[in-house]
Design a protein that fits this description.
It is a single chain. The protein is α+β, with helices and mostly antiparallel strands. It has helices spanning about 55-70, 75-90; strands at about 5-15, 20-30, 35-45, 45-55.
């Protein structure tokens, strides 16, 4: 679980999915002198956060793909994991 007091929102977007707004937020998380990044997606009554790592450029790239793909909280974890594997296996 991410401590919300250590988070600063650096990006936010809204997409309408099946008549319901999905809110996408990218956060910078500051803890013990380190900066990492996390995304939060809220859709209806569901809200899920997922850590994205320590590189801001990668976090921003993943955030944009999540917004473009109309990703919901239900699939967030699987999609981020797939994007991480895609990045690691790229030649």
């Amino acid at each position: 679980m991410i401590d919300r007091r250590s988070m600063v929102q650096i990006r936010g977007k809204v997409q309408c999915i099946c008549g319901i707004d999905a809110y996408y937020r990218l956060y910078e998380v500051r803890r013990a002198g380190l900066r990492s990044y996390a995304v939060n997606i809220s859709y209806g009554r569901d809200s899920v956060s997922k850590k994205l790592g320590f590189r801001r450029d990668e976090a921003c790239r993943v955030f944009e793909k999540l917004v473009e793909g109309y990703v919901t909280p239900t699939t967030l974890g699987d999609i981020v994991d797939d994007l991480s594997r895609e990045r690691c296996c790229a030649v």
